[in-house]
Specification:
Blueprint lengths: L8 H17 L7 H21 L1
Helix pairs in contact: 1-2
Amino acid sequence: MAFRFEELQVWQKAMVMNEKINELAKTFPKDEIFVLTSQIKRAADSVVLNIAEG
């Protein structure tokens, strides 16, 4: 059984964006793993989670 928010186009698009951001973050320099990469990934996750929570 799917949750109702999974049917929302905005949530689906946010999931695609999240996947793209995670792929992009893998290309960042290794010295940014614990700073910029982490922050960007958490921000992208936050968008998806906030849509689901709302």
